[in-house]
Amino acid sequence: MYRVIIKRLFDFLAAFVGLLLISPLFITLIIILYISNKGKPFYYQTRTGKKGRLFTIIKLKTMNDNVDSEGNLLPALERVTTTGDICRKYSLDEIPQLINILKGDMSLIGPRPLLPEYLEHYNDEQIKRHNVLPGITGWAQVNGRNTISWEKKFEYDVYYVKNQSFSLDLRIIFKTIDKVINRKDINNSETMDMPMFTGTKN
Q1: Helix boundaries (H) for the chain
Q2: Contacts of 94 (CB under 8 A, 6+ apart)
Q3: Is residue 189, in this structure, part of any structural domain at all?
Q4: Which residue has the higher pLDDT, 181 or 162?
Q5: Those residues with Cβ within 8 angstroms of residue 128's Cβ, 6 or more apart along the chain or in another chain
């Protein structure tokens, strides 16, 4: 009942009300990033959702598109703008993903949606992370985020899939709030500070 009906209803209502409440901040950030990123306030990327379905994730664009003398993009850390850095520190660049929730691509809580390239590298256990909708925050995010290995992240993801419940979701919400307020393990990129996942070595 909770997984099939109540969770989706809660996600939709929370995303809708959340967008209304933070709309002044959201609009302000869009204007600032529109100016600093030369008319590009949003960042779009293809990610993998439930059952491996691909969708386009929406985030606030925290990096500019500056290139070196040869036309190659500068390293990610060198392209993070001042406003973008603030957004990352307080997870504000995740705000547009509330739109993904309204569309049914994501949930408030679930395994983070990762790159499609990773699909071929999951083992039979790790692939189970795609049995639920991906989330803005999740069990792996409140247990280390980018400070733990890919394998440990997927272990947490699969644990969530197998133990999904209202009480666990509530626990994740409170732990997420604590981490955002105290800026613990905050980094909104799933790949910027970690190597690409190429499979678990046995």
Answers
A1: 7-36, 76-79, 82-89, 97-103, 150-163, 166-181
A2: 59, 136, 188
A3: no
A4: 162
A5: 158, 161, 162
Average pLDDT, integer, range 159-178:
95
Task: Confirm whether 130 is domain-assigned.
Answer: yes
Under DSSP, the state recorded for 6 is I
User: Nearest Cα to 78, choosing from 94, 89, 62?
Assistant: 62
Considering the domain boundaries, does residue 191 fall inside one?
A: no
- How many distinct structural domains can be found in the chain? 1
Say if residues 47 and 28 touch (Cβ distance below 8 Å): no
Assess if residue 193 is contained within a domain. Answer: no
Burial (0-12, 13-18, 19+ Cβ within 10 Å), 155? middle
Q: pTM to 2 decimals? A: 0.88
d(CA 95, CA 47): 17
